[in-house]
Amino acid sequence: MGQALSKQGEILQQQWEQLRTNPELDKPWREFSWGQNEALKEKLKNFSLSNPDVKNIKILIAGQIGAGKSSFINSVDSAFQGRITCRALVNSSAGDSQSFTQRLKGFTIRSGGKKLPFIFKDIMGLEPEALAGSQTEDIINAVFGHIKDGYKLNREQALNYNDQHYTCDPELSDQSFCLVYVIDANTVQFTDDRLIGKLKIIRQRISDKGIPQVIVMTKVDEACPLVKNDLRKIYKSKKIKENMDLCSSKVGVPMNHIFPVKNYHDEIDTNDDTDILILKAFEQIVQLANDKLEDSESY
Q1: Could you tell me the strand order of the sheet in which 258-260 lies?
Q2: Closest CA to 291 of 37, 33, 49, 74
Q3: Complete domains list, the chain, with CATH
Q4: Chain segment 94-119, per-residue pLDDT in tens
Q5: pTM of the predicted model, to two decimals?
């Protein structure tokens, strides 16, 4: 254990020296239009679903404990509301080893007094150990609409199909049309292989049914001092690019489905630059989910 920590420390030190001397790329590696907040919000407020029989697109949010799953849901809601909201409860205690989210719960996204046709489904966080945290089968079943909202997830055992909370024959409207993995930018390189193994199992199973997957990489300001000082340099940061590459290779999600964001955490007011990264990630998630909804009869 001590040798592993020492090795991690050496790697971090080497990377820090490289980034300290030249942390910034000459030009952004991804084109990004800042200042399009209102246009994006209007586009999403007027979004039409591809299937008239489905009233809401459901999107399941999964990821490691403490990465900011619930905070991302709140940040999307905050960007639309123009104020900080906290409808999905989050845990402020650092270092907790167990997920604060215990039940499967849906959260609508609102703009002013209007409910938009999108619902985030929040689930217990993933842990590396086999019998801990949200079980892979529960996440897969939640994507396919087999688990009813309000079910208290069992850290040691997946929901049995005989249970009253299990829906054997879910409607199309019960299903999620995109799975979002939330990953902490600070811990990408040291993510436990067992946790990556769980993500790969989930990815394979839902990919067989054509469910798109996205990575939302959080805490970019903590991972890179350049970005902490100026969020608009996020796509010029060597560190963020490196971590996104690592996310892609470890989990298998392509780079154009990975979105770095800064969640709201200690702020009391929203910020345009924070909002636009969140809104752009959300727009891409919605578009992918809607494409899957349109193709749903093919699976």
Answers
A1: 105-111, 114-122, 57-63, 176-184, 213-218, 258-260
A2: 49
A3: 35-47+54-298 (3.40.50.300)
A4: 455 455 567 888 999 988 888 999 99
A5: 0.87
CA distance 212 to 102: 25
Query: Looking at residue 234, what DSSP letter applies?
Result: G
Phi, psi (degrees; rounded to nearest 5) at 288: -65, -45
What integer pLDDT is reported at residue 102 of this predicted model? 72
User: DSSP states of 160-203 as a string?
Assistant: PTTSTTB-SS--GGGSEEEEEEEEETTSGGG--HHHHHHHHHHH
CB 294 within 8 A of CB 251: no
Q: What pLDDT score does 167 carry?
A: 92
CA distances from 3 to 6, 230, 262 (A): 5, 36, 32
Tens of pLDDT, residue by residue over 170-229, are: 999 999 999 999 999 988 877 778 888 888 899 999 999 999 999 999 999 999 999 999
- Residue 283 reports pLDDT greater than 60: yes
Distances (CA, A) of 96 to 65, 66, 67, 71: 8, 8, 12, 16
Distance CA 171, CA 53 (A): 11
Give, as one character, the DSSP assignment of residue 235.
G
Distance CA(187)–CA(192), nearest Å, equals 9
For every residue of 35-70, DSSP letters joined together read: T-HHHHHHHHHT---S-TT-S-EEEEEEEBTTS-HH
The token pair that represents 169 in the structure block: 């024959």
